User: Fold this.
Amino acid sequence: MPSLDDLKKRITSVKSTQKITKAMKMVATAKLRKAQENAEKGRPYSERMNNIILNLSGGVSDKENSSKLLVGTGKDDTHLCVVLTADRGLCGGFNTNIIKKAKSHFEDLKKKGKNLKIITVGMKGYDQLKRNYSNLIIEKITFKESKNINYFDADKVGKIVLEKFEKEEFDVCHIFYNQFKNVMTQIPQKQQIIPLQKEENADTQEKDNLNYEFEPDEDEILNNLLPKNISTQIFKAMLENSASEQGSRMTAMDNATRNAGELVDKLSIEYNRSRQAAITKELIEIISGAESL
Amino acid sequence: MSEEFKVEIVNPEKSFFSSENVTEVIVPAFEGEMGILKDHISIISFLKPGIIKIFSKNVEEKFYVDDGIVEFKDNNLSVLTSSIFNLKDFDKSVIDKNLSDAEKSLENPDLDDQKKFLIEQKIESLRSISTS
Assistant:
């Protein structure tokens, strides 16, 4: 049975933890709103970019000579995986979910006998992956210094990926990130960016294509556009990720605050009981002492 | 019939500019400046560094872009660009910095012709802005 003092200390310590988690929740809520706004503002760009590329790629006449970014290198041997995670912890299952998704993909590739290369973006992803895959991580990038997600950072990652692609260091590239659905749910995503995957509704797009005029021609526009699309997709993933991170942290901290509250309640009851027990004991001692006189 | 159409300029971070009633837009397309009026044929093209001019009834807006793609369809003009500045708040020091950066990158010997052309275009249009 812990003494009264011990209980008191525990209660204070849980209370101060609760204060911290509460503050973190508030901060996450404020940041979430901003991140969500940013993610929504960023959507039109990537959607339009996608649309244009779909329109264009439907109309490419010469499949063999078109950009490798679109059709692939023709091989499927070396896979590059870009794992986007947060730089900070304490955000519930956010990082773990991405890592889990990525790891299952890694194992899949291993079974199929493919080569694997990993780029991690964000500290936490690197921390979790270096244990098992440290020899496969070819690059780790973090944007801890930059406060807001900006396109410049995404472009840096995109350029690294492109550079490696041009040197033929890999054939297929996937990115892993969390898609923001709502505050409670974030869905870990695997998206193939090289070669570009066409979506199912390509049929309807191709019809539109007939009405377009291109200047210069399709192939040239496409070659100019595809490298940009890589950065755009990564940027989109980063935006979704940051909204997800804040959402996830908010829920996690909300839970933590509630749990701390419950713990405080339980501990206070225990504290009061033992205080009352001590008083009763003292009373009994006094009374029995008086009786014996 | 009105002669107005919609234009939207989007950069990766947000929708930068949008207007419902513009009468003419001039964009620095890769193969030369291109003016777009209402009911232009659907077109996709990409941009070289230069100035986008947007005319509506009373106002005229000017933007500097580094690169981008234009798409015109059903009287909707969308411009996707990663670097855009409104000329009104384009600071002299920013221009000079961009200019010197561009001049420096021109010295790089392994540039291919297209990149060189683009950088030269950039320098030219930046110069014209800073002198005007």
In short: Chain B has two domains: 5-86, 91-131. The interface with chain A takes residues 8, 10-15, 29-31, 34, 41-46, 67, 69, 71, 73, 78, 80, 82 of chain B (CB under 8 Å).
